[in-house]
Write a structure and sequence with these properties.
Blueprint lengths: L2 E6 L1 E3 L5 E8 L6 E9 L6 E7 L4 E3 L7 E6 L4 E6 L8 E9 L5 E4 L3 E5 L2
Parallel strand pairs: 2-11
Antiparallel strand pairs: 1-3, 3-8, 4-5, 4-9, 5-6, 7-8, 9-10, 9-11
Amino acid sequence: QVQLVESGGGLVQPGGSLTLSCAASGSSASSIYVMGWYRQAPGQQRTLVARDFNGGPTNYADSVRGRATISRDNAKNTVTLQMNDLSPEDTAVYYCNAGARLPLLSDYWGQGTQVTVSS
């Protein structure tokens, strides 16, 4: 099993920046092969923001490419998302996600953290 604990978020002014962090723990944490961030705006589906595969590619949603940077510390099982030039369209609940291989290939989610971009 993997537990994900998120931090960051809150109210941000348009044009501002945010940093979201997520730490993974649990018996299966050593088998994590991907970590990332998704977001869900009211009335909309949860969509990818950015994700990073162990030793592999990093994917960004078109809507955040050039404004977002995802970084990981594999030794600590943490993932950080930095975004700048925020707009009200970035308002959503942001979820940390991790994929782990053991004991079975599984997806894990954090509890979500609200990001509101408003003046």
